[in-house]
Automatic annotation (TrEMBL):
InterPro entries: CBASS_pafABC_assoc_protein, DeoR_HTH, HTH_11, PafC-like, WCX_dom, WH-like_DNA-bd_sf, WH_DNA-bd_sf, WYL_dom. This is HTH deoR-type domain-containing protein. Residues 2-57 form the HTH deoR-type domain. It holds the Pfam family WCX. PANTHER family: PROTEIN PAFC, PTHR34580. The keyword Flavoprotein does not apply. Keywords: Transcription, Transcription regulation.
């Protein structure tokens, strides 16, 4: 819709000094002629937009211009509220002050109370110390970071990282960066990072042709397809963790759950966490490994009796 395009153009101009009509036409997949008509529409509506010619010319806004809250729809305001609330869960510096200052978010009384996000574990503080604040500072200032890390194989090591970004994936926060020990890109789970320190040394950002965020401690595991038979008492866990289409009702009080995970100790532990309410149907080797671990657990308890 044209009104959405006009609003986006204003937001783009607010974040850039100038932009060319070609850049805008490419972004919105319209002709430059349409962009020029949009600029004329904005000008006629009172938005102080201007066009300049020459090598460094383009479309821009007068510096005195500030966005009017009426440009934001109720959905826009709710989206901003959601984003700010999400940031508050990681104790992002001064975020509560920002929420209070951004007056256009709260058009109605208590409008921001429609959602409450809490990513903390039960019984624990959201995230210890000021780890997120330190990571933010290191990323924005190209500072090396050093920390101890425990990977999924229970191996502990000291790492020096060139931090690139924070990412939220699979219900957990991760630090993504270039690991100087492994000489490659890595994804580090925040909860496994200990003794975090920002170094005084700066680094020059590297260019990577393919920045795939899919490597957490690049010990490579085989992805296995596992078929579980889950009793109805644990059905809620299946719906917590998996898509509905991967859960099939067997019509006998049990459910077939098809999952795909890297084969590692976490997978075995996850299956065992169902207790007597789930069993591995296939593959056979996973079934046997789980049985062996059950026996090891029984042996451990028997030794203590």
């Amino acid at each position: 819709m044209k009104i959405n395009r006009l609003t986006e153009i204003i937001l783009i101009l607010l974040n850039k000094k100038t932009v060319t009509a070609k850049e805008l036409s490419d972004k919105f997949q319209v002709s430059t002629r349409t962009i020029y008509r949009d600029i004329e529409t904005l000008s006629l509506s009172g938005v102080p937009v201007y066009m300049s010619k020459g090598k460094n010319g383009g479309i821009g806004l007068l510096e005195c211009f500030s966005i009017n809250k009426t440009l934001l729809s109720e959905n826009d305001k709710e989206s901003i509220t959601l984003a700010l609330k999400a940031l508050s869960t990681i104790e992002y510096p001064n975020i509560n002050s920002v929420i209070n200052k951004v007056g256009f978010v709260n058009n109605k009384e208590d409008n921001d109370n429609w959602i409450d996000i809490d990513l903390s574990r039960w019984g624990n503080k959201t995230y210890e110390d000021d780890k997120f604040d330190k990571i933010r500072y290191a990323i924005l200032n190209n500072k090396l970071v050093e920390f101890s890390y425990i990977n999924s194989l229970a191996n502990q090591s000291k790492r020096i990282i060139e931090p690139i970004k924070l990412t939220y994936k699979g219900q957990s926060w991760y630090l993504y960066g270039y690991c100087r020990l492994k000489e490659d890109l890595r994804l580090f789970r925040i909860s496994r990072i200990k003794d975090f320190e920002v170094k005084n040394e700066c680094f020059i950002k590297r260019y990577f042709e393919n920045q795939e965020i899919n490597k957490e401690e690049k010990e490579v595991f085989n992805i296995v397809k596992v078929k579980l038979e889950v009793k109805k008492e644990a059905l809620y866990r299946a719906f917590d963790d998996f898509a509905e289409e991967s859960i099939i009702d067997n019509k006998n009080g049990t459910y077939q759950v098809n999952i795909e995970f890297p084969e590692n100790e976490w997978l075995y532990g996850y299956i065992l966490s169902f207790g007597p309410y789930a069993k591995v149907v296939e593959p056979l080797h996973i079934r046997n490994i789980v049985l062996e671990k059950m026996q090891e657990t029984l042996n451990m308890y028997n030794k203590n009796t």
